[in-house]
Amino acid sequence: MNSKLLSLVFVSALLISCNPRKGTVNSGEVNVGVSTTEVKDPAMQPVYNASETRTNDLLHTRLEVSFDWTNRQLNGEATLSLMPYARPIDSLILDAKAMDIHEVKIVSGENNMKDLKYKYDGWALRIGLDQQYKRGQEYKVYIKYTANPENVEQQGSAAISEAKGLYFINHDGSNPKKHMEIWTQGETESSSTWFPTIDSPNEKTTQEIYMTVQDKYTTLSNGLLVESTVPKNGIRTDHWVMDKPHAPYLFMMAVGEFEVIKDEWVRKDGSKMEVNYYVEKKYAPYAKEIFGKTPKMIGYFSELLGVEYPWQKYSQIVVRDYVSGAMENTTATIHGDFLYKTSRELIDENNESIIAHELFHHWFGDLVTCESWSNLPLNESFANYSQFLWDEFEHGRMEADMNAYSEMDGYFLSAQQGGHVDMIRFDYASREEMFDGHSYNKGGRILHMLRTYLGDDIFFDALKNYLTENAFTSTEIHELRMQFEKASGEDLNWFFNQWFLASGHPVVTIKQSYDATAKELTLSIDQKQKLEEWPLYQLPVDVDIYINGKVRRERVWIVNEMNEFTFKIDQAPDLVNVDATKTTLWKKTDNKEIGQWVYQLNNAPLWLDKKEAFDKLEKSNDPDAMDAIMKSLNHDFYDIRLLAISSMDACLKNRPEEVKKAMVSLLGKEAHPAVKAKIIDFLAKNYTDLSMLSPIFEKGLADESLQVIAASLKGYAKHNGEGGLAKAKSYENSESAKVQLAVADIYANYGTPAEKDFFKSNYNEMSGFNKFTFLSHYFKYLTNQPDELTAEGIPVFCEVIESDGLWYERLAGYQLLNGLQGHFEKRANQIDNELASLEKEGNLSDDKKMELEKLKQFCLSRKTEICGKMEVYKSKEKDANILQYMPR
Length: 888
Ligand SMILES: [Zn+2]
Fold this sequence. Notes:
alpha+beta; globular; binds zinc ion
C-alpha cells in the first residue's frame, strides 16, 4: 500500500473545539480475532499481537460473483478447498464480515453436497464439518452468501481511509461526471467483506473468480483472464485464474467502463508477458506516458533482485474515490485518480515512485509476505526503499538522495506527531497503526544503511536468497536477518536490534580540532539521545578528510556515548565530512567553521552534502559563502539550483543587483520547469522593476509547463493590481487544476467580492488533494472579505462535511468551518476595540455605533451558528480518520 495520504495527514492542523470537551471519542473500532471462540473484552486484549494460528490451510478459493449496483451488494458462491494445517480438525472458522449466509455445504463429489451446521455472528462463520479431517486430507466447503459492504463497520488507517473492502462508486449513476465503478481494497483484513476466507497475511491460496457483469463493463482481477462467455441478454461472465498462491488481502476485482492499453515486458528467455493499463477513456491517450516505464521497471527489479518477476502478468488500474494512495494487489495494482495526468501535466510531475513502490511489493509483500501486521516493515520498508532504487537507476544518485531526504523527514515528522515506536512491534492497539512513518519511511532508510554497510554484492545476494527460499510463504523479521547473516558471515543482531526492534534514532554532536604541533586531527562524536528509551547505537560511519584537494576516507565505529577519533594529517583539513556517504539516519549537530561549509558546498559531491551546507550558509554574509551559493545556481542538477534559489537571503541583502542579473540570466537558459517557476516566483517576490518583470511574466504565461504558467500568473497578479485580477479571471476555466489553484491563490490574496462565484462554482469540480488546497484558498479569500461575504462560506463548508467525499476532503470542511468560527470571534473582538477607541477619541457617532454593534452581533451570531453545527456534526461523525483529529 502506498502512504501518499500520510504526508497530507501530517500537515493537517488539529481541529479546535468550540468548547473544551471532556471525555473520549469512540473511534468505532472493532478488533476481533476470529479464531477465538468467544468475543473478548477489549480491555482484556493481549498486549502481544501474535501471528494468526494456522489450524486450517486454505488451498484454493473459487468464487462466482455478480453485483447488485442498486443495493451495493455482491451475490457470491464460494467453494473453498482446505486441509488441516497440523492437527486433526472437525471445524472451520472463516472470516466473513457483514454477510448474509444462505447455504453452507460440504462438497464430496461433482454433484454431492451436504448441508453443514454453522453459526454466524456477522463477523466469523463457524462451521461444523461432517467428520474429522486429518493432516493431508483435503476437503471442500461451499458457501452461498450476499456481501453487504455498506454494513461493514471497522476502522481504516492513515494509509487507508475505510475498510468496506468492496466499493461501488457512483452506484446509481446520479453523478453524470463520475465514472461508475466497482473495486476492492483488501488490506488489512477487508477481503473478508466480499468473500469468506481466512483473512490473515500468513494464509496463502490460489484463486479463480467468475465475475458476471453487464457486457459494457471491463473486468480486472488477479492472474489471467482465461475465458469470457459470449454475452447473453447483455450479460457476460469473465473467468480469472490466479494459479500461484497469495494472501487473501491481495485479492482484487474491478468493474467499469475502462479502456485497456496494452504493453508488454520481455522476459530473459524471450517470452512476452502482458503489461496492461486500465484507464478511463479520457486518459487512454496518456496511459503509456503515465505508466510507460513499467516494463523497464519490471526488468530492472528482476535483474537487481536476481529473482525474475514471479507472476503471470502485470496490470495497473486507476479508480475514482480510492481510499488509499495505491495497493499492490497481486498482478492487479490499483491507483488513486491522482495518477490521471495529461501530457501537459506530466511535464511538471510524474508518479514513478508510486509505480515502483507497488511493483516492488510483487516481490516484498506478494511473493514473500509478512506473517503478521507486526512485521509489516517486511512489506512496506522494501516498497519504500524501491523508490530509492528506481530513482538511483533511472535518474541518478542526486535524485535518489533528494527524495530519500524527504522520506527521512517524513519519519521525523511522523514520529514527532505520533510518537516513537519499535519498527517491529507486537503491542499495537490497532493493526492499522502499523501503516505509519516507521514502517515506510524509517524502514526504507534502515535498509539503505544496511546496504551501505554490507555492500551491494552481499546485500542483494541476501535478498535473492530471502526471496527464493521463502517464495509463496510468509516470514518474520528474523528470517530476513538470518539471510543477511548467511550472506555476510556476520552476526547482525546488533544492527537489527537497534534499528528494527527498538525505537528512536541517534542524536549526535560532532566536534573537531586540529593540533598543528602534533599534526593531529581529533574528531569527537557524542551520542546525545535519551538512553533510557532509545539504544546506544553502534554506527559504522565513513569520514572524508579533504586536504589540498585530495580526499582520504576513514571508517570509524561510533559505539560509546562519547567517542574520540584521531588522525595524523600534515596540515589543517579543508573539510572533515562525517558520514560521507550520507546514509545514516540521525539528527546531528556538526560544529564546523564556516570555511568548511563553503568548501563542502563547493566540493563535496552528494546532494545532502550540499543541502546541509546551504542550510548553514543561507544567512551568512561571508563573501565566500555568498560566492558558493551564487555559483550553485549553475549546478548540473536541477534541485541544487532550486536549493540555491531558496538560500538567497544574504545574497539578496548584500548583492541585490547581482542576484537579479544571475536569476534573469539563469531563467533565459533554464529548461527545468520547477526551476523556471521558482525563479519567476523569486523575481516577483523580491523585485518591483516592471520593465524586467513584465516580459518574464508574458513569456511564462506562454510556457508549456503548467507550474510555470501558474507562477507567472501569480507574479503578474501581484504587480498589476486590478489588471492582475482580470488576467487571473481569463484563466478561471483552465483545463488544469494547477492553474485553477493559482487563480484561487491569487483571489485568496488580492480578491474582491467580485470573485466569490469562482470558488462556489468550482470547488465541487475538484477532488482529493486539489479540493483540499482549493478550499484552503477559499477560506483565506473569505477571511479577507466583508463579514457578510465571509459568512457565505458556512454553507459551503457544511456541504463538504455532509458530502460523501473522501475523508480528508471532509476533514478540510471541518477545519475550515472551525477556522471561520475563530475568524468571527476575532472580528467581534476587533469591532469591540474599534468601538472603544472611537469612543475614547470622541469620534463615535450614534449611527456609527449602531452600525458597528450590528456588525458585531452578526459576527457573534455566525460564531454561535457554527458552534451549534459543529456540535451536531461531531456527535454524528463516524469516520475514525476524522475522529482522530477531534479534540478529546
Ligand atoms: Zn506499500
